[in-house]
Amino acid sequence: MTMVGDARQDAVAQDTLVSIGVPTFNRPRSLARTLKSLLDQSWKNIEIIVSDNASPDPAVEQVMREFCEKDSRIRYFRQADNIGASKNFFFVVKQSRAPFFMWAADDDYIEPWFVERAVQRLRQDPALVLASSEAQYVTPEGELLEFLPEGEAFRRPLAKGPVDRLRHMLKYNFGNLVYGLFRKEALIQDGEIFWEKTGLLSLNEIPILLYVAYRGEILVMPEVGLYKQAPAQVHAQVKWELRGGRLPAPCRLSSWGAIKGTWRYHSQALNHIDSALALLPLPDRERTDLQAVARSGLLRHFLYLLLGYKPRVRHAGG
């Protein structure tokens, strides 16, 4: 099937390299599917950087050797020791050589047009620093779950200043934004990956997305281009986040341990937000206001989880 824009790409854009980083650990079957979807991209000028975090299963290295023999666009690194998930995420960025970069999880896959359309959006609008698409959740067994428009609030650029973009991100953030295509410069502050610069060895996506929002505009295309593997319980909670109502039974805080763990997670998220905002060149008053927005939002979210109910939401954007 010929993708829209292929001919134009051949004419004007073959010089634009895209780096795709794949941190992986011990999932040879899904890794093979991920790599196939990346190699099948209509945008051919790519480098795929795979960092195996010392997987004990030898099948991971076998999969990588087979793919490397077939396609020279793959660069394979195997860590001698497990360096932790976050450092593995940082590692693939550091190895990238292109002006555009994206992460790909080793259990996800994307449509053949994903990279091409994202590159086109970034080339068309210099204010954009991140272009992505909607995602479809898929169970580990391969069942497609109900589509949820998480990216509705990012359908078009906000066309406002950095503080307004930060407020918007604090209100509408969702984790799948991390798997879009970035201008790599929007991930870097003073020569360091901003995520790493915060000193937080966690894969909480909030610090990097706040920095990206500070740097420029974010766009989520309405088409489903990303397929995200997740248990049905994760899908159920995302659906509740978007629509409100009664929290599904499997997602409820049914024990004192679950309540404490959820409170600890929200406290950690707030710490991550404070760390990210502290590194942004903002006036003190605006930073304080943004911290207050974050605190009220996280506290409200925790109370909704505690009560097992959230007021009905008409739409995700606005």
Automatic annotation (TrEMBL):
Q: Which UniProt keywords apply?
A: Transferase
Listed InterPro entries: Glyco_trans_2-like, Nucleotide-diphossugar_trans
A Pfam family cross-referenced in the UniProt record is: Glycos_transf_2
What GO annotations for molecular function exist for this entry?
hexosyltransferase activity
Domain annotation Glycosyltransferase 2-like: ranges: 19-132
SUPFAM superfamilies for the chain: Nucleotide-diphospho-sugar transferases
Query: What is this protein's name?
Result: Glycosyltransferase involved in cell wall biosynthesis
Q: What organism does the record attribute this protein to?
A: Chelatococcus composti
Highest classification ranks of the organism: Bacteria, Pseudomonadati, Pseudomonadota, Alphaproteobacteria, Hyphomicrobiales
